[in-house]
Amino acid sequence: MVLSVTITKKISITFIMLGLTACVSVNPYTQPNGAGTQSAAQVIDKSGQLTENEVLLEPQPTAVPKEVSAVAAAPAVVNNLLIKAKKQQQQDDLNAAMSTVERAIRIAPRYPASYYQLAELKFESNDFSNAKSLAQKSISLGASGSLKRRALELVQMSDNYISQGL
Questions:
Q1: Residue 128 pLDDT > 50, yes or no?
Q2: DSSP classification of residue 45
Q3: In 48-132, which ranges are E strands?
């Protein structure tokens, strides 16, 4: 009985050790073994004399992960939804267009063009306060170029209407 307990303990310890070695992970930001440049180094023997050249492997600097773009990209489905919303807007179906853009925002919540398009729809439906905040959200998410310019204009126009009490 004592013999079977010690064998069981040894087996358990062996499986634990195997499990721990299986948990070792590789850092994805470092070069794999063998990568690097080679250089020659002189070897000094016990007597202090230079004897031969040894090839050493100099490690490459650790790879740095690429930074995520400041502006999120939209999946194709989001672009399709925004196109659909534009068509709905052209057909004067503002509620359907807003619902479509809100769906696009749920799919890609960091895409600034969606917020700007919803801001336009809110502005067109005389909801100037929400139009202003959505245009500002578009800018805060990294809108640039003409999108940023149009969002800034929409913020200013909304402010004008809000100050007039409309």
A1: yes
A2: -
A3: 50-58
Question: 55: Cβ–Cβ under 8 A, 6 or more apart, which residues?
Answer: 38, 39, 40, 41
Distance between CA atoms of residues 14 and 16, nearest Å: 5
Is residue 51 classed as helix, strand or coil in its secondary structure? strand
Structural tokens at position 72: 């999120």
Q: What is the pLDDT of residue 165?
A: 83
One-letter identity of residue 69: S
63-69, Cβ contacts within 8 angstroms, sequence gap of 24 or more: 63/29, 63/30, 63/31, 64/29, 65/29
Note the pLDDT tens digit of each residue in 45-72. 566 655 555 444 455 555 444 443 445 6
CA-closest candidate to residue 126, choices 161, 87, 95, 86: 161
Residue 46: what pLDDT?
A: 60
The single-letter code of the amino acid at 58 is E
Identify each DSSP E strand in the chain by its residue range. 37-44, 50-58
Mean pLDDT of 143-159: 95
* pLDDT score at 74: 73
How far apart are the C-alpha atoms of 117 and 120, rounded to whole Å? 5
End-to-end, the C-alpha distance of the chain in Å comes to 90
